[in-house]
């Protein structure tokens, strides 16, 4: 197949492309705008493959998108391109609305028009929209986990823009018969994640002797999913999932934010101990951010029962791999990046 991946120079997108090139025979087209969070070096291992192509394109550029679809005629679109940092969405929501909503609309229209043009060829096609569990809002500690039937209740401009894009994708399925699948995942972590997110930020701040800031009391709960487990689930959904369905993908690993940070500090104390102190001393609680969700938790029973996917990494194994990777590769991140 020809698989078009949007946001393929980002954290999850690059992990997906590495998996596709190394573990399948598919051709991969990477569409990426190359924003501040993109990292083409994350694809160094596969960039010379004859089955890989890169196109530097903004998904908000409808004309360029149309050209790419006509040139490559992909069998599958795996749409990951998005503005995704909640703090940034609070400061500048317009970027999130433009990329996450209008960009998704442009991809849907390019897909629809391509299928219409190729209808006589009886071309099979899937538009796989990769979204987030944040569209569901948050849970209390005694609430049941998010399922595919959980009503949407987004809290931030980021999650609202992703919820909007989910609804638009479903509308193109109902109205135009565009073959779509949606996945909603929990918090990803692993190698190559941009250091604005909790886990890489904590690691890099710790080894640079900087304050590790924790919002509020640190009791917010997230379900953590190792990125390599996620991309294997994505490929299984794209190739074996049922058209029109939604699949939730979680790591079956709920952790409080403070627990995550403390586990990282303990690992660093063990691997590269400080002479006269512990990394835990760098932790400081700061004012909570507006609209901060209390708990996310994913029920992954549907993808498990129907497609046979289960996460392979425990949090202990995944976080150790992640910490070791950042210790060995922290030089990949520009020194001008604010840690």
Largest sheet: spatial strand order:
3-2-1-4-5-6-10
Distance between the termini: 40 Å
Structural class: alpha/beta
Topology-level CATH name of the domain at 2-190 and 225-252 and 297-313: Rossmann fold
Count of DSSP-assigned helices: 10
Spell out the helices and strands N to C.
EHEEHEHHEHEEHEEHEEHEHH
Task: Report the CATH superfamily of the domain at 2-190 and 225-252 and 297-313.
Answer: NAD(P)-binding Rossmann-like Domain
CATH A-level architecture of the domain at 2-190 and 225-252 and 297-313: 3-Layer(aba) Sandwich
- Gyration radius, in Å: 20 Å
Strand content: 15-25%
* Share of residues in helices: 40-55%
CATH class of the domain at 2-190 and 225-252 and 297-313: Alpha Beta
Report the biggest beta sheet as strand number plus sense, adding barrel if it closes. 7 strands, parallel
Average pLDDT level = 95
Unreliable stretches covering 5 or more consecutive residues: none
Total beta strands: 12
Q: What's the overall geometry?
A: globular
């Amino acid at each position: 197949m020809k698989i078009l991946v949007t946001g393929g120079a980002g954290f999850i997108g690059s992990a997906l492309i590495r998996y596709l090139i190394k573990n399948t025979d598919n051709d991969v087209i990477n569409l990426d705008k190359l924003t501040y969070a993109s990292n083409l070096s994350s694809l160094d291992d596969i960039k010379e493959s004859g089955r890989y192509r890169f196109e530097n394109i903004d998904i908000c550029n409808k004309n360029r998108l149309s050209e790419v679809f006509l040139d490559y005629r992909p069998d599958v679109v795996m749409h990951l391109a998005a503005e995704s940092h909640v703090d940034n969405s609070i400061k500048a929501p317009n970027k999130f609305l433009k990329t996450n909503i209008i960009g998704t609309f442009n991809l849907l229209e390019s897909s629809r028009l391509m299928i219409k043009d190729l209808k006589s060829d009886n071309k099979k096609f899937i538009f796989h929209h990769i979204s987030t569990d944040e569209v569901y809002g948050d849970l209390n500690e005694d609430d049941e986990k998010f399922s595919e039937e959980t009503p949407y209740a987004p809290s931030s401009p980021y999650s609202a823009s992703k919820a909007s894009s989910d609804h638009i994708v479903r509308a193109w399925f109902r109205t135009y018969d565009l073959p779509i699948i949606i996945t909603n995942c929990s918090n990803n972590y692993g190698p190559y994640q941009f250091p604005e997110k909790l886990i890489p930020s904590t690691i890099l701040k710790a080894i640079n002797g900087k304050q590790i800031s924790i919002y509020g009391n640190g009791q917010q709960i997230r379900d953590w999913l190792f990125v390599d487990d996620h991309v294997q689930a994505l490929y299984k959904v794209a190739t074996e999932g049922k058209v029109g369905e939604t699949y939730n993908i979680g790591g079956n690993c709920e952790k409080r934010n403070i627990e995550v940070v403390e586990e990282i500090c303990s690992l660093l104390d063990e691997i590269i101990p400080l002479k006269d102190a512990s990394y835990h001393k760098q932790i400081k609680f700061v004012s909570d951010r507006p609209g901060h969700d209390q708990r996310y938790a994913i029920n992954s029973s549907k993808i498990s029962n129907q497609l046979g996917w289960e996460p392979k990494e425990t949090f202990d194994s995944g976080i150790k791999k992640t910490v070791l990777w950042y210790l060995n590769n922290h030089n990949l991140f520009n020194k001008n990046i604010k840690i």
